[in-house]
């Protein structure tokens, strides 16, 4: 095997993949999450804390009973797996620079994140379950639909300031063209006009997300952290002696971690690089999320 192949910059590859993963998964940060660099086995059950609608009372001095609200946990099984593998053959390597493998890294991290993201968002595609449905189409989605959904959540006792709204590009585009929203946006610096971004709509942190699944005509949703629980863990090989490199990389801010492994297969003359993660998710508190669907 070429010395150049063994000298690949594993730090660069793994960090590029992690960077893409973290940025793509960012809209899910407002869910109840459990991220850590601790490796886990498939099927491991993770307890994810869920806190919702905590209020104070005047029940002095009753220190051994819970007041209104809920502070509980959701049991999430790491039953799902996502990976992205790229391979460079000896023939490909001889015709190009070895850094081509590094160029794949960002796209690999993005691919894994998109796979996980779409799977988690499938919670909101169900027509029945923990989430209220508001009828809306991408072509007519506007601030009026957002205002109605916001009011429903507020009546359910949901803290609006902690909620986030994720919508697909068509629905987001319609929000950008909503004159009411544009006028309000201009008054607060005009991000929609200058950069095509809407940081907030009626107090809701807003994201344009192409990965939202369209099953059952879903175009987006609003969710409080208590609406869903997500756990992500890296997966490590039982025996790393076969690999040129095997490591776990984690983000210092979010704690989100993935595993990276690479090896050379003499049988087919191919150098393989894989980014992977275990994950699991479950619905949380009933009424803490609203789905927009036609």
In short:
The protein is α+β, with helices and mostly antiparallel strands and 294 residues long. The protein has helices at residues 3-6, 10-25, 90-94, 100-121, 143-155, 169-177, 179-187, 191-195; strands at 32-35, 45-52, 70-77, 80-89, 132-135, 164-167, 200-201, 204-208, 218-223, 228-233, 245-250, 257-265, 270-283, 289-293.
Report on this structure.
- The protein has 294 residues and is α+β, with helices and mostly antiparallel strands.
- The protein has two domains: 164 residues, Major capsid protein gp5 fold (2-Layer Sandwich), CATH 3.30.2400; 111 residues, 2-Layer Sandwich (hypothetical protein PF0899 fold), CATH 3.30.2320.10.
- Helix 2 runs parallel beside helix 4.
* Amino- and carboxy-terminal Cα gap: 56 Å
CATH architecture of the largest domain: 2-Layer Sandwich
Mean pLDDT: 83
| Class inferred from helices and paired strands | alpha+beta
Biggest sheet overview = 6 strands, mixed
- Percentage of residues in strands: 25-35%
Number of DSSP E strands: 14
CATH fold node name of the largest domain: Major capsid protein gp5 fold
Number of helices: 8
Given this structure, which CATH class of the largest domain is correct? Alpha Beta
Uncertain stretches: 1-7
Classify the helix fraction into a percent range. Answer: 25-40%
């Amino acid at each position: 095997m070429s010395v150049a192949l063994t000298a690949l910059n594993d730090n660069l590859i793994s960090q590029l993949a992690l960077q893409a993963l973290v940025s793509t998964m960012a809209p899910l940060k407002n869910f109840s999450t459990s991220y850590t660099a601790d490796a886990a086995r498939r099927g491991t059950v993770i307890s994810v804390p869920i806190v919702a609608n905590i209020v104070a009372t005047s029940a002095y001095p009753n220190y051994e009973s819970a007041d209104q609200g809920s502070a509980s946990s959701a049991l999430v099984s790491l039953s799902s797996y996502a990976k992205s593998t790229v391979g460079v053959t000896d023939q490909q390597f001889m015709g190009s620079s070895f850094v081509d493998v590094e160029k794949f890294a960002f796209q690999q991290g993005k691919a894994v994140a998109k796979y996980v993201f779409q799977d988690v968002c499938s919670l909101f595609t169900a027509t029945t379950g923990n989430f209220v449905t508001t009828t809306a189409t991408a072509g007519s989605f506007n601030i009026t639909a957002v205002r109605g959904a916001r009011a429903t959540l507020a009546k359910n006792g949901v803290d609006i300031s902690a909620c986030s709204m994720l919508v697909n590009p068509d629905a987001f585009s319609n929000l950008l063209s909503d004159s009411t929203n544009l006028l309000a946006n201009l008054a607060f610096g005009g991000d929609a006009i200058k950069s095509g971004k809407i940081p907030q709509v009626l107090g809701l942190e807003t994201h344009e997300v192409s990965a939202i699944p369209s099953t059952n005509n879903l175009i987006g949703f609003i969710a409080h952290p208590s609406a869903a629980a997500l756990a992500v863990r890296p997966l490590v090989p039982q025996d790393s002696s076969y690999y040129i490199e095997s490591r776990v990389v984690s983000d210092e801010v979010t704690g989100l971690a993935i595993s990276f492994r690479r090896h050379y297969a003499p049988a087919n003359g191919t150098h393989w690089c894989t980014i992977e993660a275990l994950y699991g998710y479950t619905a949380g508190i009933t009424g803490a999320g609203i789905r927009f669907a036609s």
